[in-house]
Amino acid sequence: MTGRILIVDGLPTNRIILRVKLASAYYEVALAESGSSAIGMIAVRQPDAVIVSMDLPDMSGPELCARIKANPLWSEVPVIMVHGADETETRIAALSAGADDLLTRPIDELVLLARLRSLLRARDAQAELRLRDDTQRALGLAEEGAGFVVPARVAVVPTGPHRILQPLLRDLRRALPDHINLVPLDSVLRDLDQPPEVVVILEHPSSEGEGLSLLANLRASTETRHAAILYVTYPHQRHSAASALDLGANDLMCSGPEPREMVLRLQEQIRRKRHVDRLRDNVRDGLRAALTDPLTGLFNRRYALPHLARMAERAAQQRRPLAVMVADLDHFKRVNDCHGHAAGDAVLTGVARELANNLRAADLLARLGGEEFLIAMPDTDCDKALQLASRLCKLVASHPIQINPNGFHLSQTLSIGIAIAPPTRIIAISELIAMADRALYSAKADGRNQALLGTEAA
């Protein structure tokens, strides 16, 4: 399953239609016919996202949304509201209640699935940053953010003629304290003193996804990859809307640039970006000082073990598998003996870089000590873990490492042992690491340069 979705709607027909759409995309679906039953279900088993009808038998959709967002345990659960008529006042009410997005009936399946993928990606990335921030706080290394907040830099980028946008800009500047500037399409990635923190891409009514290439370039650029992006389309541009979400847009407006709705969406995107930036900076600065290995730049044992414990705890709560790997360089002593410790350091750094470049943002990579590395991959089962670990072995073996300025390269291999924390019960991280260690020893004994899956001790 790709996620658990709770559908809250008083009409059985609406619930069934949505369940069929989501089940065909491999989502696990739960159904609730009222707001009170939905709250009870969320309390028992928190879903990954909630889709709420505007009208429920016992309360309004915005009221249920507000109650979900007001609970600290549920506040980060994405909420999508569904309404009948595409009316501005309805959208404003839903966004004011904290809804992450709105869809109009009949629901466009293409946009719905793209929106869910986008929201769940953003939630997972933020949850990982928060998890790392919590780890730092437990170690006494995190600091509270500054109370003073400077105005955000917002770039409004139209894909067509922008003469008609002056009223929109005027309304945005009146409602927001931020620096809002109109930027031509061909200038947003250059000719700027400072990169924008938020980019609003406005599709022209007659365009066919002209802003999508800009969106992809913004996400690829090191200066703007973390910018919040609001993509604005019109109802007939459904393919552009879905593609924008899959390419990395943080938010989407499908009914054109309505000023009041855009103000609410920009406020939320600025708030989220500032929060994520603070978490990212906190992780970067704090860990750099005390929790990273000075040679490779990876996390060290001091950080890795408590963070792995939190990963295992979250995996058990969500009933999802967790893969734990121990990787060890093959015949590393020969490198130091034959080429010197400087060459050994270069090999360690090169292998660390290769591993880091081929893991996901949510994965944990740490140097346990010596030539041994720890890798933890959430939501990864046996088959997937073995496939990924084998790929890492091949990548390291196929990329010789430069060990001196004269261009001399040295080939290196590694062996990997894998342990899987099953989604049905909790296993202590010490046992997971021991299980991976046993598999690593087997991989070494069986010829090295390979990955093997471990089993629990008898």
TrEMBL record:
GO terms for MF: diguanylate cyclase activity
Protein name per the record: diguanylate cyclase
Lineage: Bacteria, Pseudomonadati, Pseudomonadota, Alphaproteobacteria, Rhodobacterales
Signal sequence range: none
Response regulatory domain sequence ranges: 4-120
A biological process term (GO) from this entry: cell adhesion involved in single-species biofilm formation
Pfam families attached to this UniProt entry: GGDEF, Response_reg
Ranges where the GGDEF domain occurs: 320-456
E.C. code: 2.7.7.65
